[in-house]
Amino acid sequence: MSVLRFLRTPEGAVGGFLLAALAFVALSAPVLFPGDPLAIVGPAYLHPFANPAFPLGTDSLGRNVLAGVMHGARTSLVIGLAAAFAAIVVGSAVGTLAGLFGGVVDEVLMRITEAFQTVPAFLLALAFVSVVGPSMGTVVVAIALSAWTAPARVARAEVLSIRQRDYVAAARAVGMHPLAIAFREVLPNALPPVLSLASVIVASAILIEAALSFLGLGDPNVATWGTMISEGRNVLRSAAYLSIAPGIALMVTVLAIYFAGEGAVEAASARRIAS
Amino acid sequence: MSRTWLLLRRRLIGSVPVILIVVVGTFFLLEAAGGDAVDAYAGEVGADAGLIEQLRQQWGLNESPLTRLATYLWALLHLDLGWSVAFSRPISGLLMERLPNTLLLMGTSTALSFGLGSLLGVVAGARPGSARDRVLSMGALVLYAVPGFWLGLVLALFFSVQLGWLPLAGIETIASGLTGWARAADIARHLVLPASALALIYLALYLRVMRSGMAEVWRMDFIRTARAKGLARRRIVLRHVARNALLPVVTMLGVQSAQMLGGSVVIESVFGYPGLGLLAESAVRGRDTPLLLGIVLLSVVTVIVVNLVVDIVYALLDPRVGAEAEGAR
Fold first, then answer.
1. Does domain A62-267 have CATH number 3.40.630.30?
2. Whole-structure pTM value
3. CATH T-level topology, domain B96-272
């Protein structure tokens, strides 16, 4: 029912369709282009549409651009989703603890949140990856490191209002353990507003990953859009398509996520009005 | 005046723990990076084992981590950020040299995105739900989805490579010998592309905040009164709706400063613009962790200062802010 409502909003329909297409691309990449997308498979600098075997052409080394773009979708989506998942789990745990315990715990946790928020997200990720070394895992951690603050704040605000409610008082009265109250009674009810941040977090995670790999700090063993754009930059004059193709892929992905997020918000508010 | 002063004092005190936490964080990253200042110095200047040991003693690097943290803090208090291996210079001097360039870029693009964004936001919010509103909101969303560095590349490709209108990189023509206004004009020409690339991305945020703020104000009673009085629509939009929706947009200025500083790193790298961002890229390439963390610390201070300024402006615009602080005293 709610899926239908989501698809009925224009944003939801466009976003849902694009996301489904992207998921298909990401999943079918290893089937359509088995083997390493970073392998050299043809002549260098083949322009797009010139050779049906390489619809998007080849890069300066003779790698298939279409294979790179499709495998890059996998990298972007995996990193975006993983970073957002980590950020939301950590953020909502911190926010719940801060909101529920209050006092010194709240003060300390919120100061830490504030400190993390003050560091520009991209610089934090850059510093972390350059110290620890680039890999899929470290890039995910680096992005989550700054992305958890927004869910933490929202979760805290939600918890502060929820903890006044009767059912929490009842749980306390029957002697439930405070941590059990926090994670079984309060957190599940505080989650919806936190989850509504998901689309923005995934989108910015994908953009940060792209910027990191643009600066040469992506996982060197996988195809990423940022790396492709950065390699195309050196031949911008003669082969602009090398930067343009992955850039458009990146933009469409982020846009699809925003649209889906807007659609979800609209569907949710439509439900509130209907009920 | 005392209201502003109180606010300022409270914010300054509040930012101390924030800076401390960030410093402890960068200290741990430095430790994790391995290699210390002496390694860096020895690699740079050359030193035998005896001298290395002596320097370690002298700089207190054989002490426990806690003592080293204290030493680090003490050095930071004296604005001593250490030695840059990549540039063979003290880090603080390097930072101070690059900071004005980044502030110029940030200031220009903030002014552009704030001005243009809130203006378009007024246009969109004048009739929420109209076709004009939908087109503008959609356009803003599309712009917000564009990766900044890619937009920079596309702008460079179009305006410098294809049309040859604007310079491709740098902050001024090298060895041009220009002075005074001619030099300022030269710098301005170099600033157009990087500043527009940054501004276009963040314009969307201001537009959206302004628009949604206006959409909310339209529903309020005093607007109905204004309409009932028969005020011209233009007057209602500008004097009543837009004015009351402006405050959250001002708040965004502070929130955005951190993001924009981060975004400027890649933009500066695309345009070879010699600010903190390009310095950060060189630090990454030169494996110069102390320099990179010095940039992080300076950015944090910059973000805190920008937020302070925004808070003060906000307090001046909205007399309700800070009044409760005075009462609480």
1. no
2. 0.85
3. MetI-like fold (1.10.3720)
